[in-house]
Amino acid sequence: MQIGLVGLGKMGGNMRERLRTAGHTVVGYDTNPELTDVPSLAELVDRLDRPRAVWVMVPAGGPTQQVIDRLASLLKHDDIVVDGGNSRWTDDEKHAKELAARGIGFVDAGVSGGVWGLEHGYALMVGGDREHVERLKPVFEALKPEGPYGYVHAGKVGAGHFAKMVHNGIEYAMMQAYAEGWELLEKVHSVDNVREVFRSWQDGTVIRSWLLDLAVNALDEDEHLEKLRGYAEDSGEGRWTVEAAIDNAVPLPAITAALFARFASRQDDSPQMKMVAALRNQFGGHAIETVDTVKKA
After folding, report:
1. What residue stretches are annotated with the 6-phosphogluconate dehydrogenase C-terminal domain (predicted)?
2. Which of 144, 164, 183, 237 is an active site residue?
């Protein structure tokens, strides 16, 4: 299949490579001239045969809106736009309506996999009309992990990003639980091998998970996380999850507490946030602040 890909950063660039490895033709555009295949969005659209499909992987909000506005002026009836970034689901509904007025389809795709997706595949949660989703299925099949799972048509437009938002809310709570357990183990004098305690949990326990594996990776690199500052950003999706819970009267005490813990990390050097920061860096390549960086500042 032929597809355009806008945004060739950490995830977009790896997705381009995974799709090409699977035999698909990918025309990529990025504002970074070292990454892009074409000099402009117009050239990207011209390179594609109709009906065209263009996948957008740029930051949510203004950048996504700007790209979709430009694509709306370049694409034609029966073409499809896929938003694979971390847009809010309410933006999806707006974008779908704007594009539908021009006869252009819209699909939202929640994508999880971070910097590991190239090798292991990406979990995909997709929203949109069945006709549009089916046309893109060869691309979804190439991006997903091997095996029967990792891809779902979650529902109508907005469902993909809503599902990914909830996924990220759960991720917040899981990371916070590991971080709290790690801090308590580090605190008591009787436990003098915390890293190996975490490692022992990787087999045969009910709390084993990929996040636990990544925690062990982080501890292997810095056993007591002494190089990290206890500061962790939130990407926005944790906030949206809590807001959606309020709107729907659904109690989310663990996810809400995990979000508030991120806020607490910005007040002091939180030991728990060292683990959260380490985990975010391990699975997503997210930026971290080191002790040396803070001292130099």
Report:
1. 160-293
2. 164
State residue 154's pLDDT score: 98
* pLDDT tens digits, one per residue of 213-227: 999 999 999 999 999
171 is catalytic: yes
The CATH H-level (homologous superfamily) assignment of domain 164-296 is N-(1-d-carboxylethyl)-l-norvaline Dehydrogenase; domain 2 (1.10.1040.10)
The single residue of 43, 94, 134, 171 carrying the catalytic annotation is 171
295 is catalytic: no
Fold assignment, 2-157: Rossmann fold (3.40.50)
Q: CB under 8 Å to 17, separation ≥6 — which residues?
A: 118
* Packing angle of the helix pair 159-187, 237-247 (nearest 10 deg): 110
